[in-house]
Write a structure and sequence with these properties.
Layout lengths: L1 H40 L3 H8 L2 H6 L2 H15 L2 H11 L6 H17 L3 H15 L5 H18 L6 H8 L4 H17 L3 H14 L5 H10 L8
Length: 229
Amino acid sequence: MLFGINVVYLLILVAVSLGLIFGMRALQKAVLAELSRTLYEDNDPDGYSRMLESRLILLVLRRGTVALMRLDGALFSGSPDAVNAACANLEGIKLKPEERLNWYQKALSSAVVHGDGNNAKLYLERIEALLEREPDASLQAVCAEARQLYGVYILRDVSLIGALEKESGSLSGARLGIVLYRLAKLHHFAGDDANSTSRLKAAIPCLNGSAWLDVAERAMDDLSVLEYE
């Protein structure tokens, strides 16, 4: 009889534990959806920041997740100082490798957009160190993309033109449009605005529906846009 009672208690304990796990996951999903809606749909970075400071958020989400979401808010604001502060906050937090890579990629993108060569180099080196022993082809592609960003935007390395021209031959869609836009930048840096304009013309149809379309169209009207975007 005692054995039977213990089994019942064990089953109740398991059921309660599973209920708590699934309940917590559902709550996390709802919280993440509300945060995303507040920032990206309502365009309310202040409300987003207030939500991230609430006790509920800190109880439901991991500290690393909250810190990464603060970085998303800083990136949305477009403020390099806010991004740097969010990155400084991440320095002391234990993150999963994929979270750390996500941080480094976003920080690198922000640095190249703002022409911050020092931070761009820092985060490129961190990406390379994190992925140097990774055999996975998709992760090696992430590393190659980081190097390309740094080479085009920070170094303005026109020797990359040949490699990007070759790469563009195997691409399609938005990715092709982005590479063509980078080629337009490099041709412009090389003083070849005829080829720069040609690459922009080819890039624009590929970028329909993407955030890059507006930038490419403005560059088509004024090639000086290629100097800073």
